[in-house]
Amino acid sequence: MTAAMPGHARPSARRFLEGRGRYVADLSMPGMLHAVVVRSAEAHADIAVDADPARAVAGVRLVLDGADILASIQPPPIIWDVPGQRRSGLRALAHGRVRYVGEPVAIVVAESEAIARHAAALVRIAYAQRPVVASIDQALAADAPRLYDDWPDNVVASAEWSGGDPDAAFADAPVHVAGRYVSGRVSAHSLETRGVLAAYDPAQDGVTVHSSTQGPHQVREAIAWCLGIAEHRIRVIVPDVGGAFGSKSCPYGEEILLAHLALRLRAPVRWIESRAEAFVACVPGRDEVVDIELALSDDGAILGLKALITLDKGAEPYAASVGAAWAGAMMVTGAYRIANVHVATRVVVTNKTPTGAYRGYGTPEVNFALERALDDAARRIGLDPAELRRRNLVPAEAMPAPSATGLLLLDSGRYEEMLDLALDAFGYRARVDRARAARADGRAVGIGLAFYVEPTNLGPSALCGMIGINSGGFDIATLRMEPSGQVVVFTGQTPMGQGVERVLQQLCAAELTMPDEDVTVVHGDTQACPYTAYGSGGSRGTGIGGSAVMLAAGRLREKLCAIGAHLVGAAPDEVELSQGGVQVRGDSARRVSIARVARAAYLAHDLPAGMEPGLDARASFDPAALAITYGIALAEVEVDRETGLVEVRDILFGHDCGRQINPALVEAQVIGGIVQGIGATLYEGLDHDAAGQPAIRCMRDYPLPFAADVPPIALVHLETPSPFFPNGAKGVGESGAIPIPAAIANAIRDALGDAAADAVDRLPIRPENLLPS
């Protein structure tokens, strides 16, 4: 294991604890106007909009509906564009037809938020109902109403991949297991809702947009595309972001609209999403069905796998496009040796809020299906669930190991060692025996486990191109050492609660052998910070962003050593950078401080021949492959046989995210993901009725796990550095959310036996479904 870097987990946390964070809602400008979005109350209807009553309100500056923007705002670009994918052509405001509750229909701009809300309530929308498609099954029906008249059906895109000979494997296998596993729609539910403040920039005849987003450069690109203006006229600034979890990774129509309004009115305009709006306007996650079949030998070897992944995109495919389904196809074989595989994906539209990225992005859904099916297979064969997994894990000596489909390369890991470490730490065998004894006494106690692998450090750019992502996978970092010797790191990565700024600070300081506090990280400004190809998503901040910082710091170190060697009268290869100074190796008397070297670089009175003045360095990093984080979750549960309520009594989580740059942040990320996994498993669900009306519209009705619902959590870890990244780090931001649903579901199945066979295959697992019928 690699020793962790010293230092506190996150010194900047004090600013937030003291209430000194600044979010979009905290920003104000002279003459600022306020915008309110008018949203559809129906799931599918032709509409006629009468905004004249709103325009007549004193203090209203502008009201726009869909007809008003047809010529000035184009449809947004597709993020994940695969061959044959269909496009909706929808713009930021609906025109003539709405396709989900919450779709923007009009926007009102007024001198105060109160006036804007009053006027928005006066916008009249006449609805002529159309048939509603509220589920995947309805979308795929032969006679299904079409959401888009120019599409032949409701399928956005589909694809298939195969490896080996799956038909032969299934034909010869003595054991078959099959199931349908449903991951329900959930809300990312960050503490801060979305917000945008756009202001006219007279110097550039452009616009400055403040947005709570994970991808400032991607927002700038979308604004430029939709409004038809050059990117250099658009500046995107990201203040503090109060959580995102993937939901703020794609550009939204509100960012496009606010930029248009600021340019049109030559005034600052702000919009803040209400919590009620967030339930229908901010992209939810999951909403996926995985049909999976396993073929096994009598001794538990997995001979073949077939899977069909169906993703409900809601009404609009642009937000993250088909990516969650394609990512699921990549990860469906998990950590196991499976030589014969066939996986198909299809993405459909329904009359619901468009789904987007959410913590795990397609991996929790297929992990839930695979690990549930493996438990059923173990039960069928008569093997312990842990032993069945052991017999199929990819061995360490086989790494890097490609999957049968060629979609995934397992880069590094010690899977069997992780399994043993976690089982021992959990006291697995003793817990299994105690649970069996408890069930004999009439109590419903069960033990469950789930292994997982997670694609992190999203890239490389060539892979992004191969799978249809309209973005690169690289990151650029720029470093500047000031004349006083302190360093400023400029990055396109966005902190949103995960602490990436702290990690970049540590990596830079370690490379330059200086105190952490001498490094400042600047982020969230497209005018000052270098381009980040995919934004802050895909668990890539440390691995890719951090590697770019390390490379840039290495180049800066070379220049420091060259100048320092000149100052002490030595050759560059005779000196080293150590503890904030340059010195001749083995001769501490011939030493010069970094501050003196920096001063010399900026005075430029006495530099090596041909040396440019100043101390700047830039580096880009484009990885050769993904980094695959992996691990295992074990859970003990007890189900109340009278109420169906599930108590999660204990969780142990084993993980390997490569080199841990900041173990405290790693722990926080894993535990946060675990809690979200518990929520998705037992509590959270964004249901819709047959008319496409959402059942949840406020916090009161959306059950999130409370502190009392979180059991004791123990963590164990290995550190197997990824060979494809200079710092050896793999991503960890999404890990906790991935295996928890399957581990808890398997534990409930163990507790209740065959009575829970069907109830645990659909998330969330509701208490009423666990009661005897």
From TrEMBL:
Q: Give the EC number(s) listed in the UniProt record.
A: 1.17.1.4
Give an example GO molecular function. xanthine dehydrogenase activity
Tell me which cofactor or cofactors this protein depends on: Mo-molybdopterin cytosine dinucleotide
Q: Which InterPro entries match?
A: Ald_Oxase/Xan_DH_a/b, Ald_Oxase/Xan_DH_a/b_sf, Ald_Oxase/xanthine_DH-like, AldOxase/xan_DH_MoCoBD1, AldOxase/xan_DH_MoCoBD2, AldOxase/xan_DH_Mopterin-bd_sf
- Class of the enzyme per the UniProt entry, highest EC level: oxidoreductase
Per the record, the domain of life is Bacteria
PANTHER family in alphabetical order:
ALDEHYDE OXIDASE 1-RELATED, XANTHINE DEHYDROGENASE
Q: Output this protein's name.
A: Xanthine dehydrogenase, molybdenum binding subunit apoprotein
Q: Which organism is it from?
A: Rhizorhabdus wittichii (strain DSM 6014 / CCUG 31198 / JCM 15750 / NBRC 105917 / EY 4224 / RW1) (Sphingomonas wittichii)
